[in-house]
What does this fold into?
Amino acid sequence: MATGCLKWFFREPLYRIILYILYCIDIVSNILRYINCLNDKKDFNAKKQEELAFVELNRKGIFNTNNFDDTSHARNMNIILPDLWNDWYIYGRLFPTMFIQPSLERKRMVEIVYNKLKRLQEKKKDDVDLLSLPTTIFIVGMPRTGSTFLHKILALDNTTYSPKQWELKFPTTINKCIKKETNDQQQQQQDGYNNNNNNMLPEKGISSTTTRIHEANEVNKWTYKMMPRLSKIHNVGASDPDECVIGFVDCAFPEYYLWGCRNMSKSYHYYLKSKMEEQYMNYKKQLIVSLHDASTSLSNEEENKRQNLPETTHLVLKSPHHTCKLQTISKIFPNSIFVWLHRPLENVVASTCSMNETLNDYSDVTYEPRKQLGRRTLKRLAEVMSIGMKEREEIINNNTSGCKFIDIYYEDLVKNPIEVVKKLYEECDNKKCSDEYVEQLKSYLKDDAEKRKQRSASLKNQQIHKYSLDDFSISKEDVDKSFQAYYKKYNLHRI
It folds into this structure.
């Protein structure tokens, strides 16, 4: 125990000292709460966070923001916020200001733009549907199964649309998406924006493509500076396609550490058991707004000259969080394609434990034994897998949504990604990859291999990302027992 605690401390000693200082402040604040000299719990509820978000939006020139079109987020927030408040770590106090309030701002801006698109749709005389999405491919399955790699290579095809990280973090631009349709002041107020303000978000600078990318890059710099170990595990740039859960949290506010990083059991089980239909409907609206933003050219900025995307055949999204919400997705996104990635689960569990440990290092001031973290991670992965398999079978047996499932094995993807993609295209739409796309794939794979070599060379004096089940006191037999049905169903022992 003592040895493990020392190793934990010296992984990031300076960061740990800073965190302990904050922890001491947190202890003092809890003492003040106990003797009724401080009462900030009243701020840890959905209503208060909404009020603070509205104040900020009004300050930025986006008015008529006294309520949301949809308030489903409130239920989620009233679960997670008490968990955060009761938790003995400083991030629980900072989380609302750093994450929840900006997330609420983004959600309201999406609602404003979506409502505007609805009115534009009513006035259109052509057949272009502004409120629909192309066939959506959801990359699902367990984390650490090669989903990021598959996502990146599918995004290379110019007939697909995969939201970039900066688009997920900043999904819309008010002054760009709302056209100068009218000068009527009353209509402007109904739309919820000030048409006299050409720069809707001057403080944050996210009113243009350039500044949105810049903001996302700055967030990444801060993140990887604070969490250098994370860069070895999940290194995604602002202009890369990324896990769509980044955007989904604005709609759902799920338990942030779904895979067991934090033991916020109440929030986790609420998320696991909820159908979250309202949240996925909001997410669909957000994706529509993002697609519209990407497919229209309302700016003369050189960096904003994006490919015209109304002819996009597929929207490609990925997140392991979707695995336990397949039925809801099939209802909200009919005719979707679920690409389920499979990998030997001893590797998945070990890698996920390592990921959770890395995140836990930066979100807690107390040492948690690896065995405890490992057991929780294994249990939660097994729960998600069980729900996902059950819902998959129900969709297949009672499929009225037109959804289909395609299985891809990690080993096949790594050995021959081009052939895997070709087979995927055939199973999706019974069509072949274009020659242009195949050449893009070849070029990307060659460049990626070279970048990996360079990165390995630059990290020669640093420990590369290594993990094993033994590190977390988990045996292969434990994994086999937890995923017995999954192994049998998908013949994972063949690998």
